[in-house]
Design a protein that fits this description.
Length: 325
């Protein structure tokens, strides 16, 4: 920093202010400081700056996996908003494990991130306790709850499952099945699917689950297994589009006409859903907008202290009917 000050012809205090609070520095002086930084290849010590300002300018985000496009879309939207607000994103993967999530929360708290974004609303008691004590803004995503740790931006997984049951029943399908990953949000979709099917007077739901993250190959295998033990099956709801595409492939391989012999509905409405043959019906959720909303909620709290935005943001969902149902 001394060298930057010398080349720019300003004091060290001015260089520090230009880096941490550029809005307080006149444009000509700021330009000289930036030119000196560029000339010298200087990289500011952000740790030192964060000690002085008590701000790291970093937001942590924990997702179950980076291998699924739907979480990537949410992170993309989150990053877009945070970067525009001068914040960087630090990622962690829990791999669907509660202990791993707690370890990541400990790491992010230890690094003094300015805020945290979580996936889902069900966390260990220790995680909830630590984050409430931490006192920084937290946004949960990909589900809804009336009792968030701090704030939540998402949709009701149970209601989404119920909507699919109604969609299939309205089209005359009575014997329904479910293909899903063995994780909490997929479990809520199944619970809503079962609840609504029972309310509509349909027979019990046959289900096949797999350890997450699930693949197209899992969808093929699970579809075959489900039909093998439930030959009267007429339609399946898949907890994600990856499994849905696998189910469609299984139908093609087995010669089951879709949707006449078997209807298939996915979840997330990825690009592959509309591109598949036949086109896959799916539940559309606003994955990228979910990230953007989480970013807006965080920034409102970080910049303004008390957010004017509601603590609970329900982004909703919609059933997109295509050729497969």
């Amino acid at each position: 920093m001394i060298d930057v000050a010398r080349v720019a012809g300003v004091s060290r205090v001015t260089v520090s202010r230009a880096i941490s609070h550029p809005e307080l520095v006149s444009p000509p002086t700021l330009a000289r400081v930036h030119a000196a930084i560029e000339q010298l290849g200087y990289v500011p010590n952000l740790n030192a700056g964060s000690l002085a300002t008590r701000r790291s300018r970093i937001v942590g985000a924990i997702v179950p996996t980076l291998s699924n496009a739907w979480f990537a879309d949410t992170l993309d939207g989150l990053g877009e908003i945070l970067e525009a607000g001068g914040y960087q994103l630090l990622l962690g993967q829990s791999r669907y494990g509660e202990a791993a999530e707690e370890a990541l929360v400990d790491t992010f708290i230890g690094r003094q991130v300015d805020g945290l974004v979580l996936t889902g609303v069900e966390h260990g008691a220790a995680v909830r306790r630590k984050l409430r004590a931490f006192g920084r803004p937290v946004v949960e995503t990909w589900d809804l709850t009336d009792d968030p740790i701090d704030m939540v931006a998402g949709f009701s997984n149970e209601d989404a499952g119920a909507a699919v049951a109604r969609h299939l029943a309205q089209r005359g399908y009575r014997h329904l099945g479910f293909l899903g990953a063995n994780e909490r949000r997929a479990g809520k979709r199944l619970a809503g699917f079962r609840r609504e099917a029972a309310r509509l007077g349909l027979p019990g739901i046959e289900a096949e689950v797999v350890a997450p993250p699930s693949s197209i190959e899992d969808g093929v295998r699970m579809m075959r297994a489900l039909v093998a033990r439930a030959s009267s099956l007429q339609a399946v709801y898949c907890s994600n589009d990856t499994l849905g595409v696998g189910a469609l492939l299984a139908c093609r391989q087995q010669g089951w006409a879709v949707p006449r012999r078997m209807a298939v509905v996915g979840f997330s409405d990825l690009a592959i859903a509309s591109a598949s043959q036949p086109a896959l019906s799916s539940v559309r959720v606003q994955a990228r907008e979910m990230g953007r909303q989480a970013g807006r909620m965080l920034l409102a709290r970080l910049v303004g202290g008390a957010s004017v935005l509601p603590r609970v943001a329900d982004l909703g969902f919609s059933v997109v009917a295509r050729e497969s149902s």
